[in-house]
Specification:
This protein is an alpha+beta fold and 709 residues long. 24% of the residues lie in helices and 28% in strands.
């Protein structure tokens, strides 16, 4: 790649960012075929029953001795306060894809039945555990169990035995809690003032033998050790901690281990390491930042280390983890801080130290869907089966996904990001993008000209600027326009300037002595807090939404949001929450990473680690229309830039504005902008794209392709 041509871009942006190992994709469409034979696919999915209005949640699935699958969940008009909640079930016969009509697995009249768990013991007996919620309070729940030896016929199993599992944690329970709280890391800032009070309250409750015995609930299937011991993961909403029930007689009787101590570590999923250590991955119901929590046991599940947070986001939602037959570990979780609108499945080849491969089972904008409480098993044929709660505005169901572990690795097979989106192999795909729309009339007029004549459709609006509303009002009536938000935190010109969208007193760190945004990126980095930055960029996106235009993408004016690690984190988190893609470059290509590193970009493990969970579409490369002393030189430099690109998806930005006397007073770069306002309507440029078989795309098309994956 030509360094001289790309140099102006290097001066504009401070850093580049994109996840180094993620290649997440959206949910796979529901399998609609009703054929009885299961096709040999690496991935397939279907609803267990049609979308409906009742509340359905917390499923569990098991492979039966004949190869059938049996699934259960709870269903009714609510959760703990809905007395009509019952445990329901359905069967999938081996070799078929149509689930049976649902049937009742357990129902306690007048009380909610919730959180069912299915599993087989060493004698192939089927166990169902669930909680009956007493007095409509989670902390008063009773843990019940049923066992069946006759469960292969149609309909519900025939139950041989039923009882309440009453655990009796002794005084050592309170002692372990007190010891664990002393050993824990200091609480996060949000909890710093309240943690001591919380811990004292928990310790006081732990002295009450009644409170110790009730309120324990299951969510995840048990782990069976090589010596036959069964470890049933439990948690308490009263104590907000976890505990493992231990059985050495195939689940006939259970005794409690000592608590897994933490501040809100619940619903553990257990995985056995090769050295005999057991790892528990837990939901975070505690202090900020919310992350998946882990703990370990070295004595077969009786005592546990104090829980610690990982770097994997968790929005207070259940996680699932299992070990596969080939030694890989599989993790299913909502990997966002704010909501359950994204469900990820990941693989690790180092027992959970890192998760190198990730794909997405579901992903919708915040508020458009919730996908959670997954259960995963690997069946005898090597396939992984996952069931989870599927809640959208169209209705609710339990969804079943079946996949081969290799499916998770498929996007990492060396394809370009363009090819992963379905563009032809080996092609150069360009996203030509107009920056600085809304800054002035001249920029707006140039943008309208390109869009109206179908020369260039993609651009982004600077929402704090005076002419932003004018352009948005025009664009929302032009469906083909591919318009995003050019997130603006600087006001660089001498006299043509703008304040933030947010009220000045709310974001003082974004404002200079003139009451406008700072002129340079370093000034923003030195004066603004990440909280102020997040408030402002949300306000800019929300302003466009309030005007009636949904942005197809977001990017950053002058690269300010790449100016610090904290700003970058805000940028990507907001992009994922709104499900509006940010422009970011894939640094997994060593040659691309080496180039940007040589140009002074902080391409290091810290940056890549920060961006590791970014999951929206990524660019293979990024550039800007190069400068020149004449219009013809600018064109020739642009041709040279494109010819030097490798195949893949590359965004090239430019700043078109029509030439006027006013434009000449705004910026000294008016001539370059004027040339860029006509270059992409130039017949020679259009023929260059055609003759070189260049594909031109938009952010809208990119997301449409992304959503089909």
């Amino acid at each position: 790649m030509n360094k001289i041509i790309l140099k102006p871009l290097m001066l504009k942006y401070l850093t580049l960012a994109l996840p180094g190992f993620l290649a997440g994709y959206l949910s796979i469409s529901t399998l609609l075929s009703v054929a009885q034979e299961v096709p040999d696919l690496s991935f397939r999915s279907e609803f267990i029953f049609p979308l409906q209005e009742k509340h359905v949640h917390s499923s569990s699935v098991v492979e039966l001795s004949n190869g059938d699958l049996l699934v259960c969940w709870f269903e009714g008009s609510g959760e703990r306060k809905a007395n009509d909640e019952a445990v329901m079930g359905s069967r999938l016969r081996k070799g078929q894809i149509r689930w049976s009509e649902p049937f009742v697995m357990a129902d306690t009249p007048g009380n909610p039945d919730c959180n069912p768990v299915l599993f087989l013991d060493a004698e192939n007996r089927l166990h169902l555990t669930w909680v009956v919620v007493v007095a409509n309070r989670w902390e008063a729940s009773l843990l019940k169990t049923r066992i069946s030896t006759d469960y292969l016929s149609d309909g519900p199993p025939k139950w041989d035995w039923q009882d309440v599992i009453l655990l009796k944690p002794g005084e050592e329970f309170a002692e372990a809690l007190e010891k664990g709280f002393r050993e824990m890391d200091p609480p996060g800032l949000a909890w710093a003032e309240y943690a001591p009070q919380y811990e004292r309250m928990i310790l006081e409750a732990a002295k009450d033998p009644v409170k110790r015995e009730v309120g324990w609930m299951g969510r995840i299937q048990p782990l069976t050790l090589k010596n036959g011991r069964m470890l049933l993961p439990l948690y308490s909403d009263g104590y907000n901690v976890s505990l493992i029930a231990i059985s050495d007689d195939n689940g006939n009787t259970w005794k409690p281990g000592l608590p897994i101590v933490g501040r809100g570590n619940i619903q553990p999923a257990l995985v056995l390491r090769k050295d005999g250590t057991i790892a528990a991955f837990m939901r975070d119901n505690g202090d900020s930042p919310q992350r998946i929590i882990v703990s370990t046991s070295e004595d077969n599940g009786y005592t546990w280390s104090v829980s610690k947070k990982t770097d994997i986001p968790n929005p207070g939602s259940s996680v699932e983890a299992i070990a596969l037959k080939d030694g890989h570990w599989l993790l299913v979780c909502n990997d966002l801080e704010g909501d359950r609108n994204r469900l990820a499945v990941s693989l690790s080849d180092d027992e959970g130290k890192t998760w190198k491969w990730k794909r997405y089972l579901e992903y919708e904008p915040k508020g458009h869907g919730r996908f959670s409480y997954s259960t995963a098993i690997q069946t005898e044929d090597g396939r992984v089966h996952i069931t989870y709660s599927y809640h959208t505005m169209k209705g609710k169901s339990i969804k079943h996904v079946s996949l081969l572990p290799e499916w998770i690795k498929e996007p990492f097979a060396g394809e370009t990001n363009a090819e992963k989106l379905g563009f032809p192999k080996g092609k150069k795909v360009l996203l030509l993008h107009m920056d600085d729309l809304g800054m002035c009339r001249e920029a707006n007029d140039a943008g309208k000209f390109y869009i109206e004549n179908d020369f260039i459709l993609s651009g982004a609006v600077m929402m704090p600027c005076q002419y932003a509303i004018t352009f948005v009002e025009w664009a929302k009536n032009v469906p083909k326009a591919d318009i995003g938000v050019h997130l603006t935190l600087t006001s660089e010109w001498k006299s043509w300037r703008w304040p933030p969208v947010t009220e000045a007193e709310t974001v003082p760190g974004l404002i200079d002595a003139e009451g406008r945004m700072w002129r340079s990126v370093p000034e923003v980095v030195m004066n603004a807090t990440p909280q102020e930055v997040e408030m402002e960029i949300r306000a800019q996106i929300d302003k466009m939404l309030a005007l009636g235009l949904t942005p197809t993408h977001i990017d950053t004016h002058m690269g300010t949001l790449y100016g610090s690690k904290e700003f970058l984190k805000v940028f990507l988190n907001v992009a994922e929450e709104y499900k509006i893609p940010a422009n970011a470059i894939d640094l997994s290509n060593p040659r691309v990473a080496a180039f940007y590193s040589a140009e002074g970009y902080p391409v290091n493990d810290e940056v890549i680690g920060l961006l590791g969970n970014y999951s929206l579409p990524r660019l293979d490369n990024f550039g800007s229309v190069p400068k020149g002393d004449t219009y013809d030189e600018v064109k020739q430099n642009f041709f040279q830039l494109v010819n030097a690109l490798d195949p893949g998806l590359t965004e090239i930005i430019f700043h078109p504005s029509f030439e006027t006397e006013n434009m000449k007073t705004i910026t000294g770069s008016w001539q370059q902008r004027a040339w860029e306002a006509k270059m992409f309507s130039d017949k020679e440029v259009i023929e260059f794209f055609r003759d070189n078989d260049i594909i031109i795309t938009t952010w809208r098309e990119i997301m449409e392709r992304f959503n089909r994956k």
